[in-house]
TrEMBL record:
It comes from Kitasatospora cystarginea. This is Dipeptide/oligopeptide/nickel ABC transporter permease/ATP-binding protein. It comes from the Bacteria. Residues 83-272 form the ABC transmembrane type-1 domain. PANTHER family: ATPASE AAA-TYPE CORE DOMAIN-CONTAINING PROTEIN, OLIGOPEPTIDE TRANSPORT ATP-BINDING PROTEIN APPD. It is a multi-pass membrane protein; Peripheral membrane protein. Keywords: ATP-binding, Cell inner membrane, Cell membrane, Membrane, Nucleotide-binding, Translocase, Transmembrane, Transmembrane helix, Transport. InterPro entries: AAA+_ATPase, ABC_Ni/Peptide_Import, ABC_transporter-like_ATP-bd, ABC_transporter-like_CS, MetI-like, MetI-like_sf, Oligopep_ABC_C, P-loop_NTPase. It holds the Pfam family oligo_HPY.
Length: 637
């Protein structure tokens, strides 16, 4: 892949897009409010405070366009001067409520299931009370005054912000890039700050800006009722209350502050719409932090034998409304350093759930159990939670099927590459970036500096998948679990990824668990093949013998369904009739027997164990098939 295929980074100082009419209007209105807030007290402050007992309660005139109050003060100057206090109080209440609500709501994306349910119930309880009613209650509790009104409105707005953030964060919590971040063992505050909040910033920005307009109206209402700003201070709400006493004789003293409230609220509404459309996610850049030193890393227990991974009797149970489902039912596997083992099977056979269980990434409702689980020679059950997280984060790397969803769209590639190394290896930012450049070069990606500044959407599918692999290599793992990493790629890029995995195996003796439904690709890449069906391993054999010596009827059917360029094009490919077994109610016999053309009575009554057929070859079948015919070998060569 040449450098010319890489996307160009956006140039600083490029010509901005032409603003829409609504954007121009919103900017003009916001600019006018900002001008009045800054310059209003300076220009009209003295006129707003000047007493003139000879001009008490006068109507509109050339000298006083809106009239005067009961002390002869100019109401037009007071309305303009009140802009600063009205806006400051509204923004303060909004920001306080937004910060508290966003933090409260986004915690549901990074805490455990029980805490998530508890926080969700609390949000639902708070939303049962109208926000304005809550604000009035706390305004009375805190006492009349500007500070009490601001705090009361902030408290009243927290549930609304929390519910919106909870809803938005729920969409992020189940994404592949959050799963990848959990594999890295990032702490909750880093998950929250780097992976959750940047991806929900735009709707939150819109809601916060619009809420500022609502807070302005609510604060004016509290001042109108005597619970907000107190004399000698004044805001638009207090001026509206004073003008209401004479509205039938002189309506303009009441209309003027009301129009100011409407104008400011409308400005915030328009500004929110414009900012939400134009906001660019800037989080996740690569600022330089000089002088940052590395933290000493906690030692990882050394391996005690020659296996990178040993799992015996792994089961996964998922609670459903219809009962407990068992999509993975007691599988065992082991990988040695430098070995590539393929895991193949139909969709729904349990391959991906097995990978997620090994990486401790199962969904909330799923539970994994095993008799033995040794990672890098250490029993996972004997490790503390912190040591286990670190072992998984540094010793194991996950490569997901869809790199577009596994990479965080709001973060630059450099940030995502260096997170694990900085978190677990104690590298400084500069050292982590230097290692990231070397790793990108290692996975055959040219121009690493340009890539580090890019975001995932600026890369091609093959580049994103290479970046995913590079992210895993940053911690020098001894095991890579690649869950269908070539499914969405074209044949040329697929071949590049396969060669890359081979190169990684040669260079660092890294073990690879390669999960795929493509038996031809697995036969070409892997050393051994595990065939999975109905949550069970039904056959294990050397990859070189897959075409000629597959003995289980299911494995044979998978091999025969592989496309063969020499086959008769007028004949359809071999398919497997029937459906996979129901994981809610598996039968007592062989799980494949309802679809097997070679079944006998015993197959429906007894479950066949994995039995040895030769060196490195085991099959779970009461009646193994004979070796394949020569023409079947051509399908995989």
């Amino acid at each position: 892949m040449t450098a010319s295929l890489l996307p160009r980074a956006p140039r600083v100082g490029s010509r901005p897009a032409v603003l829409s009419p609504m954007a121009v209007l919103a900017v003009a209105m916001a600019g006018s409010l900002l001008f009045l807030a800054v310059a209003g007290p300076v220009i009209w402050g003295s006129a707003a405070e000047r007493l003139d007992l000879s001009a008490v309660l006068q109507g509109p005139s050339a000298a006083h366009p809106v009239g005067t109050d009961n002390l002869g003060r100019d109401l037009f100057a007071r309305v303009l001067t009140a802009t600063r206090l009205s806006l400051v109080l509204a923004l303060a209440a909004t920001l306080l409520g937004a910060v508290a609500g966003v933090v409260f709501g986004s915690l549901t994306a990074v805490v455990g299931g029980r805490s998530r349910r508890l926080l969700g119930s609390l949000v639902n309880l708070l939303l049962a009370f109208p926000g304005l009613l809550v604000a009035m209650f706390f305004a009375v509790l805190f006492g009349a005054g500007a500070v009490g009104a601001v705090l009361a409105l902030a408290i009243g707005s927290i549930p609304g912000f929390a519910r919106l953030t909870q809803t938005l964060a729920a969409r992020v919590a189940d994404t592949d890039f959050m799963a990848a971040a959990r594999v890295l063992g990032l702490r909750r505050h880093r998950l929250l700050w780097r992976h959750v909040l940047p991806n929900i910033a735009e709707p939150l920005l819109l809601n916060t800006t619009i809420s500022a307009g609502s807070a302005l109206v609510a604060l004016s209402g509290l001042s109108f009722l005597g619970l907000g700003v107190q004399a000698p201070g004044y805001d638009w709400g207090q001026l509206l209350s004073q003008g209401l006493d004479r509205i039938y004789a002189e309506p303009l003293p009441a209309i003027a502050p009301g129009l100011a409230i409407v104008y400011a609220a409308l400005t915030f509404q328009l500004l929110g719409e414009v900012l939400a459309q134009a906001a660019a996610r800037r989080h996740g850049g690569l600022p330089r932090v000089p002088g940052q030193t590395a933290r000493p890393a906690s030692p990882v227990p050394p391996a005690t034998d020659d296996h990178v991974l040993e799992v015996e009797d792994l089961t996964v149970a998922i609670a459903t409304p219809d009962g407990v489902s068992h999509p993975v039912r007691g599988i065992s596997l082991a990988l040695r350093p430098g070995e590539i083992v393929g895991l193949v099977g139909e969709s729904g056979s349990g391959k991906s759930l097995t990978a997620l269980a090994l990486a401790d990434l199962l969904p909330e409702q799923a539970r994994a159990a095993w008799r033995t689980n040794r990672l890098l020679g250490t029993d996972v059950d004997t490790m503390t939670p912190g040591a286990r997280d670190r072992q998984l984060a540094t010793g194991l790397a996950m490569v997901f099927q869809n790199p577009a969803s596994a990479l965080n769209p709001s973060l630059r590639i450099g940030t995502q590459l260096t997170e694990a190394a900085r978190t677990h290896l104690g590298l400084s930012r500069s050292d982590a970036l230097a290692q990231a450049r070397l790793t990108l070069t290692r996975v055959a990606l040219p121009s690493p500096d340009r890539l580090l500044r890019s975001r995932p959407h600026q890369l091609s599918g093959g580049q994103r998948q290479r970046v995913m692999i590079a992210t895993g290599l940053m911690t020098r793992p001894r095991l890579i679990i690649a869950d269908e990493p070539t499914t969405a790629l074209d044949v040329r890029v697929q071949r590049q990824i396969v060669e890359l995995l081979r190169g990684i195996r040669r260079e660092a003796a890294t073990a690879v668990l390669f999960i795929s439904h493509d038996v031809a690709l697995v036969a070409d890449l892997c050393d051994r093949v595990l065939v999975m069906y109905g949550g069970l391993i039904v056959e294990c054999l050397p990859a070189a013998h897959l075409a000629t010596d597959a003995r289980h009827p299911y494995t044979r059917a998978l091999v025969e369904s592989a496309p063969d360029l020499s086959a008769d094009r007028d004949r359809p490919l071999r398919t497997i009739d029937g459906l996979p077994p129901d994981p809610l109610s598996p039968g007592p016999g062989c799980p494949f027997q309802p679809r097997c053309t070679n079944r006998q009575a015993r197959c429906a009554e007894e479950h066949p164990p994995l039995s040895d057929l030769g060196v490195g070859h085991r099959v779970a079948c009461w009646h193994p098939m004979p070796p394949a015919a020569p023409h079947i070998k051509a399908a995989l060569t």
